[in-house]
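[retry 2/3] Magnesium transporter MgtE: previous attempt timed out, resubmitting with same input.
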Amino acid sequence: MTTNLTDLQNTLIPLIQRERLEDIAMLLGELDADEVTGLLERLPANQQAVVFRLLPKDRAIAVFERFDPGHQGDLVKGLRAAEVTEIFAGLEPDDRAWLLEELPAGLTAKMLHGLTPSERQMTADVLGYPKGSIGRRMSPEYVATRTGSTVAETMARVRAGLDEAETIYTLPVLDETRHVMGVVSLRDLLRAEPDTVISQIMSDPVVATAYDTDEEAARRTADLGLLAMPIVDLENRLVGILTIDDAARILEFEETEDSSRQGGVEPLRRPYFATPIRRLVSSRIIWLLVLALGAALTVQVLSVFEDTLAQVTTLALFVPLLIGTGGNTGNQAATTVTRALALGDVGTRDVRRVFTRELAVGFSLGIILGFIGFLIVGLLFGFNIGLVIGLTIASVCSLAATIGGIMPIVARLIRVDPAVFSNPFITTFVDATGLILYFLIAKAVLGI
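[retry 2/3] Magnesium transporter MgtE: success.
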């Protein structure tokens, strides 16, 4: 598919440059929505707006919904006000919330003003919940039924809400005060007799409160295999619904963010080719500055042990090896535990268990790698040097794995993103302490 998109891009760009709008519209008409989306993602922002304007309204909304929120925000800034209003009105309230988070406050107010009163109220209700909560990601458009309703009455509600509801495959069941008492699936409704009362066929509900984190609610939805999860307020009254496709979108967003930060960059929130150079630079520069400051600490440690290096210059050869081994070991542990935290396999109360497990893992890795290092370095540089390297690797691996394992938990305890906090800290701490261990072991073994 990449080759096809490249060919399409090579065909499209000359048409844009020559302003052959009819030919562009004809080319777009031969593509499906996914192909148009992929093609637009490969164009600069100014060219995207030109091409996007040539799409029919319904198709433009379908393509727009496929973009990442950050990419949507960039595209909106290049469209005319009337076009933006039409597209914005065609989105679901939760999708509007995603988009509005990427836009300046002034533009947000204008876009909300262009909605009908009912649509504006639903969108405002979603935006009223804290950022990062599932209330921001739920849909307030749903079909619900009552405990005392019959299957026939419920099916009538389903038919009436076909066009507006986010989903009809899972229906919350409410009492007279809108408390969620259960859920009923469309399959159960179709299987039951028309006069069956809903309370007889409903299942126990699994719900999340609107103030739960979006990742936590999405993870529960995915782990339990739910098609939809009712979202309730603090008094268990229904306020919205989270569908499995929205849950998958949230998890993809969070995992992209975590993997980016673990790699030392800020998430782009838009396709690579659609990202301006200045944004690529800004997404990386802060992390490089942080890591450079950490490296300065490592240089300071080297200067303290300058006399030791002067006596045995061979020791300097192995500094990159030891730093790299410690950093990689720590980052492996941090990545594993961060993932376990996200999945709910590990909690903040498990810090002691994680500590002992990662200490055992790090020690085992250190013994294996240290023995190999002892043999190879010993044969090449002498077994005294080999012993220094072997003992240091064993110590550094034990330390790095332990620190790498508990740092994500510490980050969670102080309410910091583990992916943001763990790796820079691990790199700085392990580099500095690893070198201190290295030179202390060298002085003890070599008597210098």
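[retry 2/3] Magnesium transporter MgtE: Residues 338 and 397 are 19 Å apart (CA to CA).
[retry 2/3] clearing retry counter.
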